[in-house]
Amino acid sequence: MVQAVGIAWAGFWLVAVACLAPTSLAQAALEDPYPELITVPYFLSPGNRNITASVGQTAYLHCRVALLGDKAKVSWIRKRDLHVLTSGMVVFASDQRFQVIHAEKSENWTLQVKYVQLRDAGVYECQVNTVPKISMAYTLTVVESRSVILGPEYVKAGSTINLTCVINQVNMAGMVYWYHNLDILDYEGNVKILTQEDHQGTLSRLIIEQATPKHSGNYTC
User: Fold this and answer.
1) Which Pfam families does UniProt cross-reference here (predicted)?
2) Which residues have C-beta within 8 Å of that of residue 116, sequence separation ≥ 6?
3) Per-residue pLDDT for 84 more than 50?
4) Cis bond leading into 22, ω under 30°?
């Protein structure tokens, strides 16, 4: 039954509505105030499920599962051969490059692939052993980075050496190193290294001011 009560205030009428629910319904609402609340494991937004890594890099596939509970487990499956790589915190892969990263009480179950190789490319599945099971697919793309060095072969003593390394891969800014013969070049003195990225790849410039004969040799990036 619905009862309307009028309350006069400052020349206006405010209407308050009171719902008189049967006792049995009120009791049920107290016992289960959220009857449609989810109580089984489900996937949270994983972000990017198309991961690209260069040969030799470490790839991370992030899977987020809520309400996992004590009985359900998260497993990582390699789809091409249906090989179970991990289940819970147990790693079944004989290849030690595969590991699972999970902090206690965290919703994140991350598959880590170290020193990625071209053969690692493909589809991986994050799977929860509910009934029925739920799963989410991730695609790992592995590229082989290639670089070309542009610049003069000869410079005069006292002039500036300016070499540019063009790499056909993005996300490499913190992984580009320059070598003079077999020695790694440091960011110091008259040596400058400037690295930038765009949507096509990575550019790294090596600048050596006031070059001397000791700067002769092979340069590698």
Assistant:
1) Ig_3, V-set
2) 53, 54, 55, 56, 57, 58, 59, 140, 142
3) yes
4) no
Q: Is the pLDDT of residue 118 over 90?
A: yes
Residues 97/157, Cβ–Cβ less than 8 Å: no
Give the strand pairing for 201-208 and 161-167. Answer: antiparallel
Q: Where are the domains of the chain?
A: 2-31, 42-143, 147-220
133, two tokens: 């099971």
Cβ–Cβ under 8 Å, residues 193 and 178? yes
Virtual CA dihedral for 37, 43, 44, 48, nearest 10 degrees? -160
Distance CA 192, CA 185 (A): 9
Amino acid at 55: V
CB-count exposure of residue 117 (10 Å: 0-12, 13-18, 19+)? middle
| Structure confidence by residue, pLDDT tens digits, 155-173 | 999 999 999 999 887 777 7
Mean pLDDT taken over the chain: 83
- H-only helix segments in the chain: 23-31
What is the homologous superfamily of the domain 147-220 according to CATH? Immunoglobulins (2.60.40.10)
Query: CATH homologous superfamily for 42-143?
Result: Immunoglobulins (2.60.40.10)
Q: From the centroid of its chain, how far is CA 66?
A: 18
**Alpha carbons 192 and 220: distance in angstroms, whole number:** 15
